[in-house]
Specification:
It contains three helices and twelve strands; from the N terminus they run βββββαββββββαβα. By secondary structure, the protein is mainly β. The strands form two sheets. The protein has a six-stranded antiparallel beta barrel with strand order 1-2-5-4-3-6. A six-stranded antiparallel barrel has the order 7-8-11-10-9-12.
Length: 198
């Protein structure tokens, strides 16, 4: 379980394909505090630490994860948003984030507005994921509030702190991002689907 508040940026230093899986080695400042088997969110994807060496650690992404997320686009030098799992009893400053990416989206527009930025993302509506105005959404692991919610697109406002401390400052038009939709919204959507089939 995560909060969507990014702890730090990690740098991908090595990638190794292992059959259909991908081993991702990351350099981070909190590596010394990690343990084998610990969960860390990478661009919003919950992955398990399988090895640790000096200031680097390695996680493995399976084929299903690679198919659903932007991790396939990683290369050596890529900057990833990192967050360790929630501590019980800590403040929930973002929203409840599972680290299970629902689908990817593409950055459609970037607009600067008096020191903040508005990013618009477009996603495939065929998976029936939805956002609501002022609801929560996770983009590359960052907990954000939805503005201008439409059927298959939405915008988010990014303040300078978030822009500087996440990989949002690397986004361009066409950048693919990971989306995790609000878990409460997903349950409501599923219940209404089940009612329609009865």
């Amino acid at each position: 379980m995560f909060t969507g508040i990014i702890e730090e940026l990690g740098t991908v230093i090595f990638l190794k394909a292992d059959k259909e899986n991908l081993d991702i080695t990351v350099r981070s400042n909190f590596t010394s505090e990690l343990k084998i088997d610990q969960s860390v969110s990478h661009n919003g994807v919950c992955l398990t630490v399988v090895s640790i060496k000096d200031d680097t650690y390695t996680v493995t992404a399976i084929k299903e994860t690679l198919d659903k997320t932007n991790l396939t686009h990683l290369s050596v030098g890529s900057i990833v948003n990192l967050e360790r799992g929630m501590k019980l009893g800590a403040r929930l400053d973002g929203h409840i984030v599972q680290g299970h990416v629902d689908q990817t989206a593409r950055c459609k527009n970037i607009e600067e507005a008096n020191g903040s930025w508005y990013f618009t993302f477009e996603y495939d509506p065929s998976l029936h994921n939805i956002t609501i105005e002022k609801g929560s959404v996770t983009v590359n692991g960052v907990s954000l509030t939805v503005v201008n919610s439409k059927r298959n697109e939405f915008s988010v406002a990014i303040i300078p702190f978030t822009y500087e401390h996440t990989n949002f400052n690397h986004f361009e038009i066409g950048t693919e991002v990971n989306l995790e939709f609000d878990v409460i919204g997903k349950y409501v959507k599923r219940i209404t689907e089940l009612k329609e089939h009865h």
